[in-house]
Write a structure and sequence with these properties.
The complex is a heterodimer of chains A (about 375) and B (about 170).
Chain A (H helix, E strand, L loop, with lengths): L4 H26 L10 H22 L6 H25 L13 E2 L9 H11 L19 H4 L6 E3 L11 H8 L5 E3 L7 E8 L2 E3 L10 E8 L2 E3 L1 H5 L6 E8 L2 E31 L2 E9 L4 E3 L2 E7 L7 H4 L9 E2 L11 E3 L6 H7 L8 H7 L6
Helix pairs in contact in A: 1-2, 1-3, 2-3, 3-4
Chain B lengths: L1 E5 L6 H8 L13 E8 L2 E8 L3 H4 L11 E7 L6 H12 L8 E7 L9 H7 L10 E5 L8 H18 L1
Parallel strand pairs in B: 1-3, 1-4, 4-5, 5-6
Antiparallel strand pairs in B: 2-3
Classes of the chains: A alpha/beta (about 375), B alpha/beta (about 170).
The complex binds guanosine-5'-diphosphate and magnesium ion.
Chain lengths: ~375, ~170
C-alpha cells in the first residue's frame, strides 16, 4: 500500500514503546506489595506509576496524527484497564479489604482488572456503535422444513457419484466429477468421508446433497472457475462446517451454507459468495459480492472492490435469526486511516430473493449460464 | 511469566485464551492488534500475549519477543493447505536471537474436528524433530472442548520451574 515508510516506522516505534511501557507498568504494579508501607515507600511507588500512566496517555494523544484510529482506541482502552488495575491493587492494600486469590491447580479464572483485554475493549467500543437491526426469522424460508429433495434440481440431470473414502491428493470425488463433465449438475456423494474437498473444475454445477451432511466437518474449495457450488443443504440440516476454506476461485457462485468457525477466503475474484459463518476472513481478493451472516466482525486484507450484503432469507436457518449480524461492520487490515476503507462497500443492488429460491438451485431447467447470469456474473 | 502466543491467522489463538479465561468463545472477532491476558496458574502469574496472525501483522511479531519465557505456537489441525507456511513462519521465529531462551509448546488446535491432522502429521509437517535449539513439546488441544489447555499450561509452568532449579 502507498503509505510513506517513515509513517510506518513511527507507528511501529510507538507500538514498541507502548508495549514496553505497559509491560513495565504491569510489573511495577505487581511488585507494589513488596514495597514497605513505612516511610511512604509504597505511596511513592504508586505516585510514580500514576505519573507514568498519565504520561503514556498523553503520549497516545500526541501520536494521534500517525496512529490509526483503531490502534488509538486499543491504546486508550489498555490505559484505562491499567488505571483500574492500579485502583484495585490499591484497594487491596486497604486493611479491611484483605483477601487472596487461591492458587490451586486449576485456573483461577479471574476476570478482574488485571486481565487487560484489548480485544474486549474493542468489542465494548463496537457495542457503542449503531446496531444493525436483527433479521426476523422467516417461517417460509426455513430449510429445516423443506425436504432436500424438493430443493434439488431436475432428477435427470443429477449424477450420483460413487461412495469414496478420503479426499487428499488423487481425490476420487474430483475424478468422479471430472468424468462426468458433460452433465450439468453434479451431486457427489461424500457419505464415507469426514471432509469436503472440491478442486480443479471449470464450468460445472455442483450441488452437495444432504447425504454429505456428516462430511462437513471441514471443507476446502480450490482452483475453480465458472462454477456454481451449492453446499447450503447438508450444512443447514444440523451439520455446519467446522471451518471452510475457499482458495483460487474465479467467476463463480459459491453458496457456502453454514460454518461454525471461520470462512477463510484467499484469492477469489469476480465471484459471488453466500455464507453464514462465525468469522469471515477474506484475503487477496477482488471484485466479489458477499452475502453474509456473521456474528463477529468480518475482516478483509489486501482486497479491492468487495461488496457486502446481508444473507438472503432463503438461506437462513433458525440460528441465524438470533445472533446479531455484523455483515456491514467490516475491518480492513490494510486501511489504517479514519476515512472509510475504499476497498469495500455496501452492495446496493441485491439479487432478489426469488432468484436464490428458484434459479440458483437449478430448477425449472435453468442451466449454469442462467444461474451465473442471474447473480450478475458473466456466463461460463 | 511471559508467554507469547503466535501462529497463523485463524489458528485459534484468541479462542484458546478466551476458553482458558472461561469467556464466551462463540463470537470472537479476528484480532486486529494484540491482546494481553493475565491468569493465575499454580501460583504463577502468566501474562499471555496473543498477537494477530494476519500477514499484515506478522511484521509486528518481533515487537513482542523480549523477555518471553515460552512461545506457544498454535497450529490449525484442519489447515493442511498452509502447514508449510506454518513451518516456515515457525522456523523463522526460532532463529530469532531474542527468543533463543524460550521454550516452545506447539498446540495442535481444533483437534475436536473429525479428520483433522494427527499429532504425527503436524510433527512431521513442521519438522519439529529437527529443532535442537529449543526445548519443545507438541500437544493436541481444542479451544472448543477445552482439551489439554490446562495440561499445556501445566507444562509451561513446570518447564519454568525446571529452569529456575537449574540456574
Ligand atoms: N472446531 C474448532 N474450532 C476452533 C477451535 N479453535 C478456534 N476455532 C475456530 O477457529 C476460528 C478462528 O479462531 P481465532 O481464535 O479467532 O483464531 P486466531 O486468529 O488464531 O486468534 C474461529 O471461528 C473459532 O471458532 C477449536 O479448537 N475447534
Ligand atoms: Mg486472534
Amino acid at each position: 500500500m502507498a503509505e510513506p515508510t517513515n509513517e510506518v516506522a513511527s507507528k511501529e516505534r510507538f507500538f514498541r514503546y507502548f508495549q514496553h511501557e505497559i509491560t513495565a507498568l504491569q510489573e511495577s504494579m505487581q511488585s507494589l506489595s513488596s514495597h514497605s508501607t513505612t516511610g511512604g515507600e509504597r505511596n511513592d511507588a504508586i505516585e510514580h506509576i500514576l505519573a507514568r500512566i498519565s504520561r503514556l496517555s498523553s503520549d497516545v494523544k500526541d501520536a494521534s496524527s500517525y496512529i490509526p484510529p483503531y490502534d488509538q482506541r486499543i491504546y486508550s482502552e489498555a490505559i484505562s484497564a491499567l488505571s483500574s488495575k492500579l485502583q484495585s491493587i490499591r484497594a487491596s492494600f486497604a486493611p479491611r479489604a484483605k483477601f487472596a486469590f487461591k492458587s490451586g491447580n486449576g485456573f483461577t479464572t479471574q476476570k478482574n482488572a488485571s486481565a487487560i483485554s484489548l480485544n474486549d475493549a474493542a468489542e465494548l467500543a463496537s457495542q457503542q456503535r449503531m446496531k444493525v437491526p436483527g433479521w426476523e426469522s422467516s417461517a417460509e424460508s426455513s430449510f429445516a422444513t423443506t425436504p432436500a429433495e424438493l430443493r434439488s434440481p431436475a432428477p435427470e440431470r443429477v449424477d450420483e457419484g460413487e461412495e469414496v473414502k478420503g479426499f487428499d491428493g488423487n481425490d476420487p470425488v474430483n475424478k468422479v466429477l471430472q468424468a462426468a463433465q458433460q452433465a450439468t449438475i453434479r451431486k457427489p456423494s461424500f457419505s464415507q468421508s469426514t471432509s469436503v474437498s472440491i478442486s480443479n473444475h471449470h464450468g460445472i454445477h455442483i450441488l452437495l446433497p444432504s447425504s454429505a451432511a456428516h462430511a462437513t466437518s471441514s471443507g476446502t474449495l480450490s482452483n475453480l472457475s465458472n462454477c456454481v457450488v451449492d453446499m447450503s443443504v447438508p450444512t443447514a440440516t444440523g451439520r455446519p462446517f467446522a471451518g471452510l476454506t475457499l482458495k483460487n476461485i474465479k467467476n463463480s457462485l459459491i453458496v457456502c451454507g453454514h460454518v461454525n468457525g471461520a470462512a477463510h477466503i484467499t484469492n477469489v475474484s469476480n465471484s459471488v459468495i453466500v455464507v453464514s459463518a462465525r468469522q469471515y476472513r477474506m484475503h487477496e481478493s477482488r471484485h466479489c459480492d458477499v452475502y453474509l451472516q456473521c456474528s463477529s466482525r468480518p475482516i478483509i486484507e489486501d482486497c479491492k472492490g468487495i461488496q457486502f450484503a446481508p444473507l438472503p432469507k432463503v438461506y437462513m436457518i433458525e440460528n441465524d435469526a438470533q445472533p446479531e449480524n455484523n455483515w456491514d461492520q467490516v475491518d480492513d487490515f490494510k486501511w489504517l486511516k479514519s476515512e472509510p476503507s475504499p476497498n469495500w462497500s455496501i452492495l446496493s443492488k441485491h439479487v432478489e430473493e426469488n432468484v436464490w429460491r428458484d434459479v440458483v438451485p437449478g430448477a425449472f431447467g435453468k442451466g449454469l449460464d442462467d444461474i451465473l447470469h442471474a447473480v450478475n456474473l458473466p456466463k461460463a | 511469566m511471559r508467554i507469547l502466543m503466535l501462529g497463523l491467522d485463524n489458528a485459534g489463538k484468541t479462542t484458546i485464551v478466551k476458553r482458558i479465561m472461561n469467556e464466551d468463545v462463540s463470537s470472537v472477532s479476528p484480532t486486529l492488534g494484540f491482546i494481553i491476558k493475565t491468569i493465575e496458574y499454580d501460583g504463577y502469574q502468566l501474562n499471555i500475549w496473543d498477537v494477530g496472525g494476519q500477514k499484515t501483522l506478522r511484521t509486528y511479531w518481533k515487537n513482542y519477543f523480549e523477555k518471553t519465557d515460552t512461545l506457544i505456537w498454535v497450529v490449525d489441525a484442519t489447515d493442511r493447505e498452509r502447514l508449510d507456511d506454518c513451518r516456515l513462519e515457525l522456523k523463522g521465529l526460532l532463529l530469532e536471537e531474542r527468543l533463543s531462551g524460550a521454550s516452545l509448546l506447539v498446540f495442535k488446535n481444533k483437534s475436536d474436528v473429525p479428520g483433522s491432522m494427527t499429532e504425527d502429521n503436524v510433527r512431521t509437517g513442521l519438522q519439529l524433530d529437527s529443532i535442537k535449539t529449543h526445548k519443545w513439546k507438541i500437544m493436541p488441544c481444542s479451544a472448543m472442548t477445552g482439551l489439554n489447555l490446562q495440561e499445556g499450561l501445566q507444562w509451561v509452568v513446570q518447564d519454568a520451574k525446571d529452569r529456575l532449579f537449574l540456574y
